[in-house]
Structures are given as structure tokens and as C-alpha cells.
Amino acid sequence: MYRIAIDAGGTFTDCVVVDNQNGFIKRYKAPSTPDDYSRGVLDSLQLAADDLNLKIEDFLRMTDLLIHGTTVATNLILSKQGNDVGLIATKGFRDVIEQWWKEERRYDMRWPPPEPPCPRKLRCEVEERIDFSGKVLTPLNEEDVFTTIDFFKKNNIMSIAVSLLFSPINSIHEKKIAEIYKKNFPEAKIHLSHEVLPQLREYERTLATILNAYVAPYSSEYLTRLKDKLHQLGFERNILIMQSNAGVASVETVSKIPIRLALSGPSSGPLAGLFYSRPVKESNIITIDMGGTSFDACLIKNGLIPTATDGYIGRFRLALPSVDVHSLGAGGGSIAWIDPGGILHVGPQSAGAMPGPACYNQGGNEPTVTDANLILGYLNPENFLGGRMKLNKDIAKKVILESISSKIDLNLIDAAQGIVEIVNNNMVDGINEVSVKRGFDPKNFMLLAAGGAGPVHAAKLAQLAGISKIIVPRTASAFCAFGMVISDIRHDYVRPFIYPIRNADLNKINDLFMLMEETGHQTLISEGVKDSDIEFKWSMDMRYIGQIYEVETPIPRETLSQDNIRIIENLFHEKHEMIYGYNDKESDIELVHVRVKAVGKKEKVEIQKTKKSSKLPPEGAIKQSRKVYFHEKGEFIEPPIYDGQLLISGNFIQGPAIIEEPDTTIVVIPDSECLIDEYNNYVLKMKKEV
Fold first, then answer.
1. What pLDDT score does 445 carry?
2. DSSP reduced 3-state for 40
3. % of the chain beyond a pLDDT of 90
4. 636 and 566, same structural domain?
5. Are 69 and 264 in contact (CB under 8 A)?
6. What is the mean predicted confidence (pLDDT) over 394-403?
7. Chain centroid, CA 145 distance in Å
8. Structure-derived torsion over alpha carbons of residues 656, 661, 664, 670, reported in degrees to the nearest 10
9. How far apart are CA 272 and CA 458, in angstroms?
10. Is residue 168 reached through a cis peptide bond, with omega within 30 degrees of 0 on the bond before it?
11. Does 369 reside within a domain?
12. 177 shares a domain with 96
């Protein structure tokens, strides 16, 4: 039987297949199809079936687990192509989503706030009021609810978000609105904030609910359509979908709250990074994933993947639990351009899958990072996607000369080198964002490089960042897809409970934990998880009284009593000091939220260990010779070009050299060396930093 994971990115759709019997791992890459991502998914499955000499129907019948990661929700938000959304808010609070967190360009008073996904003309108010304790101060005015029904019917608004004050504490009014709509406007889809994001802070909860309503129609339709297509081909099991919290869930579960798809794209990468770092006993790593559209960086300290509840989609703050990954627009398809002042820039805009880089010969007419890498000799025009796609070097030359060289008086090679250097520095800034800016020296971390374009740039990035060791796994080009294969089923639950922790009603808190566990247990059982494979993790959001922000702190899963409150307080002090560099044990601590992570453990994939062979690569491993430009040399040279599929554990390669895999290229720069380790990874070591 097989396990399959498919990651549909902005440029390519990656597929990883694990054979449960012999443990082999294979990966495949097909162009993404933005008009209907399900076509790219089926294309990647067809490639896998052909390689295994199976009909796709037989292949799917022999598959017991299929996981899919999609950027569909993120793309809808970023491209502003979601549904028209109406909002029902407490009277006087319809403009809460205008209270924008100004984290970007905070000192630029002329920088406008983002355009809300729900315009003011589609925001309605109802008279009602519940206080912070859940007490009803003003009953719901049902006439106001009927007025909103008439308004939304008149304006043909079918996707409606409801966000009332303190509804996570007492949801009676939100539920009543849903009940009225069900009887009087059943065609409308109602999204309740206490279900989408049951935590405090009105801006985040309201925005998350609006965005959920914004992406729900198309996202749910896409997931249903994909499920139907796979069922028609013979796959009769549940399809699992990757979420932002690095866990997976069933199509049915995700379709109810599809905003959980947002930020899910890079969330599985750090899981894969941890998987490959553990056997080599590296617990401090920085994972990077450079694909066709974006660059993702994540710092893992002491083997712990960082999580956050303050991620961003474009300019919108999204308080869903997510892996703390820093993303920027730096990929193989990132477009190089000249500003009015004559300065060369790269990204964040991308050529995407269609038309793609100019050298794809699909109609692209703007220079990209991939075009520059082709001109400099890093890429083999005959070996892209294992030879399934030929790159056109003449077109790459033409667009760089016309769009870059002619405007800033640079020759072709200097222009291409300039593009590469700029995108490298952009990516080093991304590495510094998760390390230096958070008090960590990247020199103390190993770099784990992935993505189709990542290994091309990895050695230079390590050199610029002062990192001495790099690992490039064989599955690098399908890194996130592999992370999905090894991810567990997971659901996050949160409930508000604001009270000084020493004076809090511990029985009520225990009841909240039990209620969330029961909900998680029922959901996991419905998704086919056995009781023996279910585990729960508890945490609390706490802060020193007077602080604005709280810190999520994992706590022991045991009934709360006065005996263990001191332990929980010490855990908070330690976590606070780890994040902010200090603690204040004299201050009282306030509880804000309680959280439960419900996890359904999946059977683990084991990395295959091989016996080391000779340092000398096997005869025939050097496949060809071509001219490659290395900035360190200041000229084109002819380094050895190795066929990565012929290299085995123990082989040693001295830079400069190029190693070609069917779906990526590893550039071993001068002053570096590469060893294939016993786990079949490429291990690069830098001799000096810049």
C-alpha cells in the first residue's frame, strides 16, 4: 500500500509517494494549473502511476492515505477574488475591522490601511449586548435581524459573517441569528465568529470570520470537486487536508472552516526539516524552502517547531494557530525589474506557473531568477523536470538584455549575476528575520535547504549568513509534500477565560479542558482515528497583569488544583523569559485563553540508513561539461557536472561542482565540499564565510 501527499504550489504541484512495505520514497513534480488546481493534482498522480507501471485507478486503490495541501484560500485573499461578504455586528461596532494593526511602515503616516474584504456598505448592525462575563445586558432585537435579511437578499449577498461582542463567552445571540436565517433565508451561508475563532480580541475574531466567509464558497467547492474526481478514479478513503497548524484534517472538517487552509502552504516544511535533522543529531536548524513563487524560512531551536497566533496573509492579521514561518516573494519565478531611479529589484511579483519564467517558452516576457540561473550555467536546459521541460536560453538572454541590461548599462552576465545576488540578499534577510532579529546567531544553526530552487542558492546563502553546514535531502524539491506525509491529524480548540490565575475558578477551567477534549475526541473518531492513537496537549495563554499581549504556555495535562498552579506560573515565567529575555516573578499573572490540541497519531515513516561506500563517485557519475559562472572566480569555468541519481552514500565532491537531480540542482560553490551521508542526504560544508 502507498501513502501519498500532494502540495499544489503557485508554480509546481509536488507529489511524494511512500511505499509502506519497503519504505522507498519517490517524488514527482508537475506544473500547477491555477485555473483549476485539481488538474495539476491529477497530473502529478498520473506521473507517479506511470513511473510505478500502474494505471492511475489501480494506483489509487492501492493507496491507504492521501494528503493534500493547497494555497487556494491564500490565493483568493491575496488576489481579492473571494465572494462578496456581508457582516452582522453588535450595534456601534460594524467598523471594528478598520482597527488595523499597523505593523508595516509604522512611521509612514501616509501609508493607507488595507482595503477590508467586507466594504462598509455591506456591514449591518443589530441591537444586543453581552458583557465580558457572558451576562446579557441587552437582548437581541430580532427585528434588526429581519432587516438584515431583507438587505442581504436585495443585494444578493449569500455569504454572511456574524461577529458579536463577547460571543465566545456567550454565543446565545449568534446562534439565534443563525436560527432565524435558517428559517427565513436558508440559501445564505452563515459563518459564526464563536465557531471560526472562539477567542477574544474583536478585530482578529471579526476579520477571521469575514475571511472565512470570503473564501468558503470556492474553497469548499474545490475540495468537494477534487474529492469527487478522486473517488471516480477509485480512491474511496478519506482525503486529508493540510492546515495552518501543521496538522491535517478531513475534507468535511476543513470545509466547515476553510480559513484554516490559509497559511497552510509552508506549515509542513519544518516538520520535514525536523525529520531529516534528528538522525544526524542536529536539534538547532533553520529550514529554507525556495520554490517558484516564494521563500519560506523557519528557525527550530532544541528540536521544537515554533508556533504563533499572529500570522499575516498579505496585509491582514490572522490569529489562527500556525507554524511560525517567515515568507517573502523570492522564488525561481520572481521577476527582476528596474525602478524609476534605475535601481534593480527582484520580486516580490512572480511569473507563476503561467506564463512562468521567460525560458519556459510559454509566453513570459519578463526576466526572472530562473532565467538568470540559466544564463549563468547553473541549470541544464535539457534536464529541467528530468528532461520533461526544455528551457530556452535564447529567450532568457533576450528578456534580460531588453529589460535589465539596456536600462542600467550592464552586460548580460553582470545583469544575470546582479539578479542572483539581489535575490540571495533578500533571502538572507529572511533568514535574519527568524534568527538575528529574535536574538539567535545563525552561525549556531544548521541550514536545511529545500524547494526546487533552494539547493541552487543554498551554499551562497549559508556563506552570506555565516552558516557552516547545509543538508539537502533527496526529497528537497517536494519538501512540504513530504512534511505532509509525516504530519499527524490535528485540531486546535480555544476558549476565553480572563481571570488572575491564582483567584480563578479551577473547576470551570477543568470543565473547559474536558469539553474541548470531548469535542476533539469526537472529531478524530469521525475521521477514522483509533482511541489508542489519540493524544491531547494542554496550554494556556497568560500575561502579566497590565500587559497587552499574552504568551501561549504548554502545561501538564492534569486536573488543575492549587497544588499545581505554582508549577504553571513557573512555566509561564520561563516561556516569557525565553521570548522576551526577562521575567517578573513579583507580578501577578492573568489567564486569557485555555487551549487543547487534539492529535491523531499516524504511523511514522522511517528514514532508510545505507552503508557508506567509497569517497570516489562511481564511474559515469560525471555526466557532461558546461561553462558555469562563479562570482568567486570572476569568470566562467567548466566544473564537473554530476548525475545525482548515480551518487551514493560515502561519495565526496569538492567544489566547485554541480549536482543534477531530476527536479533540482545542487550548486557546490568554490570553498565548499559535499558528502553524501548514510541517510542519502547531500551534506555541504563551507570552508569560509563572506
1. 96
2. helix
3. 71
4. no
5. yes
6. 96
7. 38
8. -10
9. 17
10. no
11. no
12. yes
Q: Which helix (H) or strand (E) holds 237?
A: none
Is residue 443, in this structure, part of any structural domain at all? yes
- Say if residue 627 is in the same domain as residue 557: no
690 falls in which pLDDT band (50, 70, 90)?
Answer: low
Q: Are residues 32 and 159 in the same domain?
A: no
Q: Indicate the DSSP class of residue 38.
A: H
Q: In this predicted model, what pLDDT tens digit does every residue of 423-441 receive, in sequence order? A: 999 999 999 999 998 889 9
Contact partners, residue 572, CB within 8 Å, separation at least 6:
540, 542, 551, 553, 589
Question: Do the beta carbons of residue 261 and residue 241 sit within 8 Å?
Answer: yes
pLDDT of 519: 95
* Residue ranges making up the domain that contains 206: 80-218
CATH number for the domain harbouring residue 529: 3.30.1490
Q: Evaluate whether residue 114 is within a structural domain.
A: yes
Place 688 in a pLDDT band, splitting at 50, 70 and 90: low
238 vs 67: CA distance, rounded Å: 9
Q: Average pLDDT of 454-463? A: 96
User: CA–CA separation, 470 vs 685, rounded Å?
Assistant: 6
Model pLDDT, residue 532: 94
Q: For 88-125, what is the HEC assignment?
A: EEECCCCCHHHCCCCCCCCCCCCCCCCCCCCCHHHEEE
* Residue 600 and residue 536 in contact, taking contact as beta carbons nearer than 8 Å: no
Is the model's pLDDT at 404 over the cut of 90? yes
DSSP 285-312: EEEEEE-SS-EEEEEEBTTB--EES-EE
Do 163 and 112 have their domain in common? Answer: yes
91 and 213 housed in the same domain: yes
Mean pLDDT over residues 15-31, rounded?
87
Find residue 446's DSSP bridge partners: 285
In a domain, 410, yes or no: no
Q: Return the pLDDT at 104.
A: 65
Alpha carbons 413 and 481: distance in angstroms, whole number: 35
**CATH code of the domain in which 277 resides:** 3.30.420.40
User: Same domain, yes or no, for 169 and 126?
Assistant: yes
Residues 471 and 494 in one domain: no
Query: What one-character-per-residue DSSP string does 126-183 give?
Result: E--EE-TTS-EEE---HHHHHHHHHHHHHTT--EEEEE-TTTTT--HHHHHHHHHHHH
> Total structural domains in the chain?
5
Omega within 30 of 0 (cis) for the link into 355: yes
